[in-house]
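Extended Data, panel c. Modelled sequence:
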Amino acid sequence: MISSIICAQNNESTIYNCVNSFLKFCNEVIVVINNSTDCTWDIISDNFTNCKRLKKVLVNGNRDLSEARQIGYTLSTQKWVIRADGDFVCYDSSDGIFNAHRLLDILNNISFQTYPTLLSVPQLNIFNDIYT
């Protein structure tokens, strides 16, 4: 029911925690690595090799963020899509753990007469090992 599209560029210090947090509640996670010059691709490849719900795409060339996201959207197979950057980690403000059941309840009860629908998911930004 939920896809996550994560666009990453030079996020080697945060990409593992980012992907891991989305894998806890998404049916599929699509990581689009765009023009990285660090080990972001290697970290994804080494740590999530047996994960069937993870799709990874390496994009080279002069692509901008919107193009990288569009690549992720074309690969998505689920009804709902969450987009994030490689330095975001999902969390719930009350206990530090993201409550997927609460999100699924909200999604299941949305009236489709109110298209388009935009929901906000709390996320933790990590910048140079400083949590904000």
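Residues 35 and 60 are 5 Å apart (CA to CA). This feature is highlighted in the accompanying rendering.
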